[in-house]
Amino acid sequence: MIFAKKIFITLLMIFGLNLSTASADESAELVVEGQPILTRTKAPSHMENIDEVRSGWTFRIKETQALQMDDFENPGMIFVDKGIDLWNKVEGSKNKSCASCHGDASEFKGLRTVMPKWNASAGALWSMEDHVNNCRTEQMGAEPLKWGKAPMDSIVALIGLQSRGMTMNVKIDGDVEPMWELGKELFYTRVGQLDMSCANCHEDNYGVMIRADHLSQGQINGFPTYRLKNAKLNSIHARFKGCMKNIRATPYKVGGDEFRALELYVASRGNGLSAETPSVRN
Amino acid sequence: MNKLKFLFSFLFIIFYSGASFSEVAPSDVVADEYGAVTASLTGVAGDPTNGRKVFMNRKQGNCLACHVNSEMSEQTFHGAVGPVLDGVADRWTAAELRGMLVNSKKVFEGTIMPAFYKDSGYNRTLKKFVGKTILKAQQVEDVLAYLQTLKE
């Protein structure tokens, strides 16, 4: 079955490439398993240069869009299944799994919509990965998982899925404000030999073709996202890293302060959109 | 025999000093107040055939990433971030086009277009590109020669 799905995806990629990327269906509405997902809404008040925020889904071609509308076709769900296996796997010196304390992942319904978030006891801005690793090291006596690798991305996707369809609403003031300001500064800072900022593409030129790619607003409400390009889940920080390398810049550290700050700022640009995890992109 | 040796070393010196002295370093390029660069970067006439290749190459000019160019319609997916380049030679002089290739930010303030002949003043450049220009001086001249063929 998985094999058949892979062939289908490969065919779809070839098909999609030949059929030209200009056929993006920008007016389509996203409904997943009968649940409506808000892919366009009024921009949050902190955004100065954009009136309407749009999910990356609205920039993709019909064939890619369709993959996200049916969980059976969504290749990201294969990784969610792996996440469920990991969720139930007993590990570490305390012989526990995630399920030992939390039952099933639905306990975390809504969590994805407020991440990243200030963690008072750690005195730091936490991403979903921090929650996972904190549980592993403190509650399970297990090794932390590496950010941006399949086991971590799968479990982060499983937790994120519980919030699908709920409205993104990360907090930007209070304790996190300095990090939010840093993230904003990074978003507008040009880097690398190509000397571009996030904003150059994802604010000034979204909706425009850059060669065969339709530039989006760079929203992260669907992460971890399954990309047809590399046929796996991609974490938020891994995507930032990829973007920086594309413009010939030295990426910040995955899980480091700069990417945490950027994650918060970019997430806040999607406040009002629905969580879409796991989304499908090219 | 000695005379011949002398002649060869003489030619050798002329050739090498010529090559090293005639190429303008990125920091020495002279642009006017509108960013136009009048003087050739190499003193060697640009080759439009090679320029066309550099223009197209994704690791060199990669110009199609952002510009439509009908002369290259055999190539699929021309980007739309920058202006269409059809007839670009009718709209701009060689000095203006050279200025845009060298450092377009001096011509169009705040543009997204990278500077193709600038090797410093960047932020967090990936190690293998530090201290390097995107294109070599002669490649800039070659692309310029190609752009000058784009007339309507």
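Chain B touches chain A through 21 residues (CB under 8 Å).
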